[in-house]
Amino acid sequence: MKQFLNFINGEFVATGRTFEKRAPANNQVIGQVHEAGQAEVDAAVAAGRAALKGEWGRMSVVRRAELLHAVADEINRRFDEFLAAELADTGKPHSLASHIDIPRGAANFKVFADIVKNVPTESFQMTTPDGGTAISYAARSPLGVIGVICPWNLPLLLMTWKVGPALACGNTVIVKPSEETPATATLLGEVMNAVGIPKGVYQVLHGFGPGSAGEFITRHPGINGITFTGETRTGEAIMAAAAKGVRPVSFELGGKNAGIVFADADFDKAVAGITRSAFENCGQVCLGTERVYVQRPIFEKFVQALKDKAESLKIGPSELPGVGLGPLISAEHKAKVLGYYAQAVEQGATVVTGGGVPDMPGEYAQGHFVQPTIWTGLPETASVIREEIFGPCCHIAPFDTEEEAIALANATDYGLATTVWTQNLGTAHRVANAIEVGLCWVNSWFLRDLRTAFGGAKASGIGREGGVHSLEFYTETKNIMIRL
Ligand code: NAD
Ligand code: 6OD
């Protein structure tokens, strides 16, 4: 049985307190995860602080960047191992993990190493009150030991999206992967040792949130900042923990994202785009579209086309050729999603397609598969329109005017992402500017340029990461003024 150990100060550490990791596709136990407690958190924080004072703290940015390139190269060299680990943990389709999760997991190190190496800081010259001259310049230093608390939906990608810039800026990190997906963060420990990242720079502690590693990390006074991706409610708990000591937080939280399709959109591209945004990764993408608004002249045709697409998705385990929809992550999450499927019916939805559990052969009958599901006919107050489900489902409603579409999209506490489909440039710009989100895609979805700002408005997050924006969180900027 695979053992998922903690990675502390360059060593793999067993604790003897274990919990099971089960495969989403068949619910079989695939490993034992060693839960970290307060003692392991204390040890990791001490090692992280020592590394800041050692070779890592003295290292030039050029050398750090070289090492991070080596990390990316080593992930790519061991691509198949990372892929196998991610597939075993998540059950997602092979094509998805091999094209998105693992390549981005490696790229996150190279991109931020290059950004940090090449981005200048500001400098000003001024005349002093007595007619002299003073110059100011900004100097960046690392924040310190960063707690990186991660979700399970894109485990390697979302973890390295934070670890890459944190290390590029000279910090040390303590990663708490989701209890559902311990594998790739652990494997990355081997990579760090192999390429010569000093001990204590990258560390991994396994466990849960409250009363476990997550809470112990976020409460620890030796943690200088916390970067978190996960549910908004969890963010509230972490923010309360971070308040003690006034530690900064960077939060990427939940969403209830709208897709808006205008009648003038390229119809086939819009259908393909919303198929991805509603069903990719079995709907377990924070940027996913669970509310779709379609302009009335094409409403019926669009609903039929999306139904056809949903019904053509092949459901199955990672390795099934052509699979488009894998399982949900866990039995608990399956119960939550099916609970929403039931509520939609109770609240009067027309179920266009899906709404239940597919017939799966053999061992996969025990897996966490659900049908891709489309509803129409619900009032905007319905729970499946208001609350984040994080499953392969969406409600489609018609709209008449641009103003109505904007108002519908904005009528939520969340503000993460929107995808807008139109061929009218004016409509695209007006709508994109009026939507209250951190990310607006036009005629596209989840298209990424890592130099750009990424994050959520309203209850979907605090702060922005990506490009130079990551530097704002992962460094302290000091202004140095010199009177000449
Ligand atoms: P979650 O909030 O349940 O858990 C995330 C992590 O937080 C896990 O590692 C968990 O163990 C830990 N945790 C839980 N309680 C904690 C506490 N009190 N203190 C410290 N750590 C704690 O989220 P999840 O179910 O893993 O992920 C799904 C959620 O993440 C969805 O809401 C989704 O929208 C969101 N998400 C957002 C983004 C984004 O970029 N905005 C990206 C991916 C996922
Ligand atoms: O692409 C990224 O950098 C990113 N943070 C994606 C988030 C996806 C949410 O599920």
TrEMBL record:
**Which InterPro entries would you find in this protein's record?**
Ald_DH/histidinol_DH (IPR016161), Ald_DH_C (IPR016163), Ald_DH_CS_CYS (IPR016160), Ald_DH_CS_GLU (IPR029510), Ald_DH_N (IPR016162), Aldehyde_DH_dom (IPR015590), OHmuconic_semiald_DH (IPR017628)
Show the active-site residues. E252
The entry's family comment says:
Belongs to the aldehyde dehydrogenase family.
What is the designated name of this protein?
A: Betaine-aldehyde dehydrogenase
Question: Which species is this record about?
Answer: Sphaerotilus natans subsp. natans DSM 6575
Q: One Pfam annotation, family name?
A: Aldedh
| NCBIfam families (alphabetical) | OH_muco_semi_DH
Instruction: Outline the extent of the Aldehyde dehydrogenase domain.
Output: 16-480
What Gene3D superfamilies does the annotation carry? Aldehyde Dehydrogenase, Chain A, domain 1, Aldehyde Dehydrogenase, Chain A, domain 2
